[in-house]
Structure formats: structure tokens, C-alpha cells
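To: structure desk
From: M.T.
Subject: fold request, one chain
Message: Could you run this one when you get a chance? Sequence is below, nothing fancy, just the single chain.
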Amino acid sequence: MIPPLKLFFDECCSRRLARKIVEIYAECYPDLETRHLSQLCALGTRDPEWLPMLEKEKGWIVLTADRGRDPKREKLPAICERLGITHISMTPKLVSERYTIQKQALLTVWPQIIKIPLLPKPTRVSLGFRMVDNGLTRMPWLSIEQDAFATWCRSNNVIFENSGGPK
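Reply: Done. C-alpha cells follow.
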């Protein structure tokens, strides 16, 4: 059985995105919960301050467009790893596309996203594009350590039954 999905959108993500995901999937996934950073604390709150608050609530998966590139700040991925928080980082190309394409990307990989709570903590998942059809088409995809989501799961013995639960 897959545990309820709890997605936490940091301030680099649109508030609309958090609301829209629940709106779209509320009927099929009644336990789905989304929250935006603005619902937890003031925007501009530094990652080392709000991530420990989130960790105390357990079960949240952080969705971020922040790639942790500012050398003067502690990086969100490093904080998540230290606290045992699984997170999904959007690639720079996806971040540059803004709300509509980000929403479509999340909807496209949704069957994999609902399985993320079963991954070992703290897994860092990447959401971006891969080129198909000899580079003519880009498709949203999830990857872990540069492997396709399904490939990484097989290689790490994270196997899901057809029903969606772990095997």
C-alpha cells in the first residue's frame, strides 16, 4: 500500500501549482495533501529555518525549483539529505518554462510521483525533460542519480506491483 502523498512546494514554485495538483487529483487521491511554503512561514525564510519545521511533521516530499546554486547559502538538497527529507528538484530547463509547462510535466509523471513516498529517505529525485524521437520531442521524466526513475528503482530493489504497492 502506498502511503498518502504529501507534496510541499517551496517558494521557488508557484502557489497555483500546489492548488492545481490537489484540484485535479482530489477525487482519485483523497489523501493527497499539498502545501506551499507561504502556508508554513513567511516567504524569504531561509531553508535551514523552515526545513526542520517540515521534518517534524514527517512524510512531506519537497518540490523545489531551487537547485542550491548560491555558494553563500546552505543548499536545500544538502539540508534535505541531513534531515532525511525526500525531495524533487526541477531541472533548470523546466524551471525556465514556468507554471503551465511545470504543471504539464507533473501531470505526465504522476504515476511515478505517487510512488515516491515508498523510496528510501532521503532520495533526491529530478524532474526534467529527456529528448525522444531522435531529439525532436522532449518528454517530462523523473530521474534519480541520472538514471530513469524505473531503472533506478529496479537497480535498488525498489519494486512496485501493478497495484502500485511495494512488492
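Reply (cont.): The chain has a mean pLDDT of 89. Let me know if you need anything else for the meeting.
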